[in-house]
């Protein structure tokens, strides 16, 4: 298992996800989404697993701007430029990914 957790330092669900894997002694890589962002490849991998709408945090400050963008390509660019608009935590295991706290899905990852 090669687990990556993309999260925000003040996100409660990110801390819960890290604790979930730590308690099960599963090694993971924690990435501060605001500080480091996501590469285009990582973003595309997660998007193909969960979809663009699931990744978008409409509750983030100034997220109203996303509603006015024409098309998914413009929305993707805005999310890559402004990672605060990405819902967290994003947990990746190869081509599999989840958004949010999803222990029911993670327990089936081998």
From TrEMBL:
Gene3D superfamilies, sorted: Glutaredoxin
Q: Which domain of life is it from?
A: Bacteria
The protein's matches in Pfam families, at most eight in alphabetical order, are given as:
ArsC
Report the family membership. Answer: Belongs to the ArsC family.
Q: What is this protein called?
A: Arsenate reductase, glutaredoxin family
Species of origin: Sporobacter termitidis DSM 10068
